[in-house]
Amino acid sequence: xxxxxxxxxxxxxxxxxxELIQAGHDVVVIDDFSNSKPEVLDYIKExxxxxxxxYEFNVLDKEKTEKVFQENELDSIIxxxxxxxxxxxxxxxxxxxxxxxxxxxxxxxLMKKYGVNxxxxxxxxxVYGDPEIVPLTENCKLGETTNPYGSTKAMxxxxxxxxxxxxxxxxxxxxxxxxxxxxxxxxxxxxxxxxIPNNLMPYIMKVATRELECLGVFGDDYDTPDGTGVRDYIHxxxxxxxxxxxxxxxxxxxxxxxxxxTGKGYSVLDIVKAFQQVNGVEIPYVIKERRPGDIATCYADxxxxxxxxxxxxxxxxxxxxxxxxxxAKKHMK
Length: 333
Ligand code: WQD
Description:
single chain; 333 residues; alpha/beta; 7-stranded parallel beta sheet; 3-stranded mixed beta sheet; 14 strands; binds UDP-4-deoxy-4-formamido-beta-L-arabinopyranose
């Protein structure tokens, strides 16, 4: 298939491109490098021996995006382009709503106009809000999202669900990621956000390279085993493989919803300890106030992904920590 990956040079998108190419698909990418670097295109080529067809602009530019639909016989879209940090979204709600919602409306409108009937949307466990029960299944009700980032993901899911109702031949897949971390084993691709990282693992990576002095742990008074936040961390390569299966197996018309998580929850301090043990690098930390918008615990019930996609996360927390450090040593500082 010919697949358009929006945000295809980003952390998730670049790993998805590699897995798509290795599964025999052709890949087209739109990205404006707002949270990625041009050299990622070279790394994708180095890893796969193939070039993606690349367009540099923000998907908000509907005229340019339409040209991509006109120039390429697209079979499927994987929509990764979005701003994605919970903490940052609390400070920049207007940018998050504008960028994330408008880009989705542009893609949906052009899919309808050009008869592209298959989209896999990069959604998030944050749409569940502060879960009443864990592990989370896809039937759990969508919660009161606790931050603008999560709200945009819930709204984008709503937009695409309503579009599918209006265009019954369309297949819309909502992949709800839990917490993607880790990096490609080559050390060529990984998470390298611009500026001070919002997310836990990139922050740990910068403390490990001594670019940052100390990790702030946002609260140790949650109702969790050690008081720090518990999340379902999933290796980004496992996540990327889930996307390939999703565009291949969820091609039937309708709305398909699927959690991509390991089913295991790890606390902030579990991650710090695992990173130190696996890599032999000390991660100094201090306990700080809770971060507004954070929840205590969130992890997946990944049964549906196994039953419907034949997908199970294969990489454990040690590999996530090892691959993160391997990438950081090559790319950070
Ligand atoms: C994880 C834990 C923090 C930074 C993420 C992504 C979002 C979405 C859902 C994919 C929390 C704690 C963090 C730090 C800390 N993923 N923390 N100090 O908030 O669960 O959301 O997953 O779509 O894109 O943002 O991830 O990594 O920010 O936080 O103590 O410097 O680490 O409180 O408990 P979060 P995160």
